Structure formats: C-alpha cells, structure tokens
Amino acid sequence: MERDRETGRVLFAGEFNFVFGAQKLGQLPDPILPEIAFAGRSNVGKSSLINALTGRRALARASSEPGRTKQLNFFELADRLTLVDMPGYGFAKAAKAVKEDWQGMMFSYLRGRPTLRRVVLLLDSRVELKASDEEIMKMLDRAAVTFQVVLTKCDVPKPPALAAKLRAVGEIVRAHAAAFPDVLATSSTTGAGIEELRAELARLANPV
What we know:
Layout: H1 2-12, E1 16-22, E2 35-40, H2 46-54, E3 72-77, E4 81-85, H3 96-112, E5 116-124, H4 131-143, E6 147-152, H5 159-173, E7 184-185, H6 194-202
Parallel strand pairs: 2-4, 2-5, 5-6, 6-7
Antiparallel strand pairs: 1-3, 3-4
C-alpha cells in the first residue's frame, strides 16, 4: 500500500496541463491517454479535489457559483493520464434546455469514449443523496462505465456521522452493476483520502 501511495504521489507531482475545453462532442481531443472523468452535482467540490490531487491551487477553477463548469475540461498528467472535469449536474439556475443538452453530451461522451477508464462520482458527505445522484448512477450503469464514488468535504461531519454516511453509500453502490466497490472519503481542505485516491487512479495510468 505504501508503494502504491508513492507511485500516486510521483504521478500527480508530474507536469499537469490544461489541454482543451469541449462544449460539443465534435470538439473532443483525440482519445490517446487513459481518461478519468470527475462527475458530481454542482458545488460538490470537483475542481477543489482536482487541485488537491495535483497540488495546484487554481489549475481547475473552483467557484461558489453552481454550474460554473459548462464544458468538458481535459487536463493531461505527465503524459500518462488525462483527467476530465465534467459539467456539474442538478444546479437550479441553468435553463432546462441547457441542462438537458449538457447531460445528453455527458451520456454520449461516457458511452462512446474508448479511452475512458473510470468515472469518479463525487458526493457531498454533508448532505443526503439527491435524486440527481441516483439518476447519474443509473446513467453510468446504462453506459456500462465503471464508476467509483468518492465523498467530498469529509472534514465537516463528525466521525460517527461520516461512518454512517460511508455505510449508507456503500449499500447504494452495491446495487449498481457499474460501480467500483470501494467508496473513498476525502477532504480537499485537510488532505484526508487524497493519497489513497492518487494511488487508486495511478493504477489506471499508462506505465512509465
């Protein structure tokens, strides 16, 4: 396990660059490196988690405004892995037509991307699971894309509440065919769980 953490640390300390922001499927960059996509409700902490994983403060833009990420943002890591910041779902301010368009694009990307290795589905540890979260899990099942649930902001709940949340989410995950069985608890503020997530994702990268 310690060796896996060191492998993850070295990978995520490598050169990390923004490649492209795609607003349409026709704009997607060529599928070359293995890809890990990050999905979650708006304001769940996707950008903050990507920044924590890579040790950068503002490479992926974090915002308190729900729905700021309005495209698929591609970042290349050490020429071995691509991280994809997906548009948030479930935000209230976007027009219905725009939300439907974004979610349609998400599904088309998920089911048609040959280099996509896993979706990291972020859930806020402080709040109850939303209907939109359940719908995204079902969409991932339909797309036959492996996804792993990662809890964010885990520095906020008390340990008993966090343990109960992990158990409850674990039960839900086991009901989904495409779900990776391990649920990770993370905090971009304290760094909790970041090493474990790096190690997990490093296993999906191209070898050195």
